[in-house]
Amino acid sequence: MLKNILAAIGLLVVSRKGYDWYKEFQELKAKAAQADAQQQAVHGANNDASS
Q1: 2 alpha carbon, distance to own chain's centre
Q2: Predicted confidence (pLDDT) per residue in 7-33, tens digit
Q3: Please, which domain of life does this record's source organism belong to (predicted)?
Q4: What Å distances lie between residue 20 and 23, 26, 29, 36, 50, CA to CA?
Q5: pTM to 2 decimals?
Q6: Is 15 helix (H, G, I), strand (E, B) or coil?
Q7: Half-sphere exposure of 8 (CA within 13 A, CB side)
Q8: Alpha-carbon distance 19 to 28, whole Å?
Q9: Neighbour tally for 6: CB within 10 Å
Q10: Measured between alpha carbons, how far is 46 from 18 in angstroms, rounded to an integer?
C-alpha cells in the first residue's frame, strides 16, 4: 500500500513538472511567432517603402 501511495505521489510530481514545461514551451512558441510576425511586418514595410 505504501508503494502505491509513493507511486501516485511520484506520478503527480512528474505530471506537474511535465505540464509546467508544456506551458513554458507554448509561451515560447507564442513569443517566437509574435516576433516572427513583427519581423515580417517590418520587412514588408521596408519593401513597400523602397518600391
Answers
A1: 36
A2: 999 999 999 999 999 999 999 999 999
A3: Bacteria
A4: 5, 10, 14, 24, 45
A5: 0.66
A6: helix
A7: 5
A8: 14
A9: 10
A10: 42
